[in-house]
Specification:
Residues 138-228 form the Acyl-CoA oxidase/dehydrogenase middle domain. It is a single chain. With 395 residues, the protein is α+β, with helices and mostly antiparallel strands. The chain folds into three domains: 16-131, Orthogonal Bundle (Butyryl-Coa Dehydrogenase, subunit A, domain 1); 137-240, Butyryl-CoA Dehydrogenase, subunit A, domain 2 (Beta Barrel); 244-388, Butyryl-CoA Dehydrogenase, subunit A, domain 3 (Up-down Bundle), CATH 1.20.140. Helix content is 50%, strand content 14%. The strands form three sheets. The protein has a four-stranded antiparallel β-sheet, with helices on one face. α9 (323-348) runs antiparallel to α10 (359-371). It is globular, with a radius of gyration of 21 Å. It starts with 21 loop residues before the first helix and ends in a 7-residue tail after the last helix.
Amino acid sequence: MPAAPAAFDPHDPLGLDELLGPEELAVRDTVRQWAADRVLPHVADWYERGELPVVRELARELGSIGALGMQLTGYGCAGASAVQYGLACLELEAADSGIRSLVSVQGSLAMYAIHRYGSEEQKQQWLPAMAAGEVIGCFGLTEPDHGSDPAAMRTRAKRDGSDWVLDGRKMWITNGSVAGVAVVWARTDEGVRGFLVPAGTPGFSAPEIRHKWSLRASVTSELVLDGVRLPADAVLPEVTGLRGPLSCLNHARYGIVWGAVGAARASFEAALDYARSREQFGRPIGGFQLTQAKLADMALELHKGILLAHHLGRRMDAGRLRPEQVSFGKLNNVREAIEICRTARTVLGANGISLEYPVMRHATNLESVLTYEGTVEMHQLVLGKALTGIDAFRG
C-alpha cells in the first residue's frame, strides 16, 4: 500500500521540497543560513540608512560559499545546476532584493559575459578573483535616455591606432562604485561590442546614485566614460551585436524568476505568523474569514510561482529553456510577488509599514525588480510576438 501522505505543511503546502535532491537542499540550506546570520540581523538598518556598508565583506563571504558565478564552470566557479542557482537566488532575495542583485550582477551579468565571450587571458585575469569575491564586477548597458531600447545606445568606442577610446554614460548600474571591473557595452563601427574597463582607468568614474526609495541596501551608480583609453585586448572577442548583452540579461532574468518568490515568501510568512498571534475582538485575526482568504490566495500564487521557477530551472538544466519562457516567468513571478507583498501589508495593518517587519521593504524593492532587466510591457510584447508571430515592439 502507498505510504500515507505527510502532514500538511503551511510553509510547503504542495510538498515542493520533494522535487529537490540532496545537493539542491544542501545549497538552499547553506544560503538560507548565511542570509539568516549575515543579512537579516542588519538589513533593516542598512535599508533605513540607504547603504550597504559591508558590500566588499559580503562579496568575499558569498564567494566562500560558492554563490558567485555559481552556474559557471572552471576558474574557481562552482559549476552548479540552474536549479541550485535558482534556489540560492530565492534565499538571497528572501533576505533582501539588494543582496540577490549583488549576486546576480556579479555572476549572471559580469562574470557570465567574460566566461562566455571573453578570451582565455581575460577569463584567467578576472574570473577566479570574481568567483572568490575579491573583485566585484558591474554591467554597463542601460543609459540615461535608453533603457528598454539598448539598440539606441549613445556610448561609443572608436579605434585610435591599436587602442579603443570610449565615451558615454551608463545609468542604474548595480555594484558600479565598488566594482573592480566594469563590463561596458558600446557602439562601434563594427556593431555593439563589450569592453572590460578596470576601475581607476583615466576618464572612468562611477558616482553613486543616492535618494533611492527602493533597493536601498544596494550600491547603485552611474558610469561616466570620458575619453577612456583601453588597449586592444580589453574588448570581448567572441561576440559582436546586441545578442551579447541580451544573452547575459536572459541569464540574469532567470535568477529573478526565483528571487521574486523569495521576497514573496518572506512577506507571506511574516503575515502568516502575524495572523496567528495578533488578536482583535478577542481572537487571533487568522481566525477571521477575510484574513484566511488573503492567506489562502497568497499561498496559492506564491507556490504556483515557485513551481514555475522549478519547471524553468529543469528546462535550463536540460538545455531547453527559451528566452520567451524566461519572460513568462519574470513577468508572472514579479507581478504576483508584488501583489503578495501588498496583501501581506494589509494583514499586518499599520505594522506593515514598519521596518520591524520585512513586508514594506520587500514591496518597495520589488518595484525596482518589476522594471529592471525588462519592464512588464517589454515582457508582454516578447510573449505577444511569440504567441502571434507579429513583432509589435515598434508598431
